[in-house]
Specification:
Blueprint (H helix, E strand, L loop, with lengths): L1 E14 L8 H10 L5 E4 L5 H13 L4 E4 L3 H10 L4 E5 H9 L4 E5 L25 E7 L6 H15 L2 H9 L3 E2 L4 H22 L5
Parallel strand pairs: 2-3, 2-4
Antiparallel strand pairs: 1-4, 1-5, 1-6, 1-7
Length: about 210
Amino acid sequence: MPVTAAASSPNLLVVHPSLPTKTVRDLIALAKARPGELNYAASPIGSAVHFAAELMNAMAGVKVALVPYKDAAGALNALISGEVQLMFSAAGSAMPRLKANRIRALAVTSAKSSTLLPGVPTMAVSGQPGFDVEVLYAILAPAGTPPAIVAALNKAIVQAINQPGTKETFAGAGLEAASGTPEHLAGAIKNEMTTLGAVIRNAGIKLK
């Protein structure tokens, strides 16, 4: 039983500084001009950052190849060292590297621009309309929980999430506070299952 969203984490499309691309449109044009030459890091397989890259492949009609890594730190290190040219990364992981100018951000993957990264455009306004992939942290109750209890939980948790201290704590961890009705959360889950289900099928991603 959906109760409320709690926080969200946008992913970032980031590239190695040597790549001659300043925008998503530049990157797509380069991928089309150099088919099979670009690759991206991802970890873990089946994560939001992996799906974001495959959604870009599908929507833009390009084939940037996957290079899997054991963990997110290894993937980011591979990008910094130039082993790969690009990747999608959780905002919290990428932000310190961005501040050090070790990688360059092209876009955020959320439907709306992120308060954590002012000035970084969304994928949607960068030539990929409808692109929306982010990590959503949510609170759910056991199936069959009475609606009155769900409503009471929603009211109390949303009030806590909207406290300034909570928002500051989330921001420090690279998260944006998020809240809403149980119905809104149920719709978000359904939409994500539909969108990412199509990505999984189209990319031929298999459970191992």
